[in-house]
Queue: 2 jobs
Job 1
Amino acid sequence: MEKSLFGRAPIVYGSALLQFSKGESTQQLLHNIKYNGQRELAVFMGRMMGTRLQESGRLSAVDVLMPVPLHPQKEQVRGYNQSALLAEGMAAILPAEVQKNNLVRKVATATQTRKSRLERWENVEAVFDVRHPERLRGKHIMLVDDVLTTGATIEACVQALTEKADCSVSVAVLATPM
């Protein structure tokens, strides 16, 4: 995962708990969390992510767990942010606070599911903002998301965080494609 973001986003550390291929069980797990309302599964998988990060020995202390935000309208329709549920599970293991409303999505973007790498980047360019950069200065932020495909969303989030606040950023995702 770190290699896929190298030169694109200045991250300290990157981790994906799982890899998936189309049609395999990990993809079904992601769909159950994201589209089938299985919130408890997201929290459970977040705990697994936190445990794996803690056991890795590569990760230095993280101050803030920050889920990649959904646009408020999309979150209202879905009823939850799956990345926030993953972060809550991670917080049960890692000694870090969860900040759900500091990184915000300013623009409701179209789904990324069937977009090319360039279309994904254009879809998320300049859509994230940091409400309270002073709360992040000098801290190590762990961005949390459900899946990293092209990295466009994570790249845009890292850009917003590093431009607005003097902080370091790492990334943890539940899954990435093989």
Note: The longest helix spans residues 39-56.
Job 2
Amino acid sequence: MTGISIFGAGGRMGQAIAEAAALRDDVRLSEHHPDVFVDFSVPEAVAGHLAQARRAGKPILIGTTGLAPDHHRLIEEAAAEIPLIYAANTSLGVNLLAHLVRETAARLGEDWDLEIVEMHHRMKADSPSGTALMLGRAGAEGRGVELDSVADRGRDGLTGPREPGRIGFASLRGGSVAGEHLAIFAAEGERLELGHRAESRAIFARGAIEAALWLVGRPAGRYTMADVLGLK
């Protein structure tokens, strides 16, 4: 039985992971000497949690979103010592979606405009969502460009025609929506939509547990949910 320690156990995702773990007979929650750490807390706490995992020499899955460049630098440093996954979204379905967006963008090219639309509950603090940015990065990678160089993260007023090659984002907030994401590829006369709808946080919790278990016993390094899924 694998011991999992949850940072942010009192939050919505922490509670969902605890509930999902209680339904399994191969996982136990462990505050002391766990086999793997799972972090769904707040950005301000991530540095301390990374340090704790490094001291313990144990893997860590980080699902906290809204991280700054300094956090990503610390994640890279930690990955030199311990196995680690940073995932903006731990749903297995969403991570397969990112793979499909990357492959689609690579094959269709910039003649097809790419827009990322997401909706979340009214309490979500960051925008665009970490998952929307993940899908945008997947599209940019498929085209062989950096997302920061082509992203349109907000349009207002007289913006003029859409620039070729840009990747646009639209964020909607309201109610109790767990998470909806849509990648729209639009060309003259046709449109391709790839999407995912989360009906409950349980899907993220199940994916987080699968990823945490996958990390146990791996050599030090930075891994992804695509590795968990066996995607190239």
Note: The two ends are 29 Å apart (CA to CA).
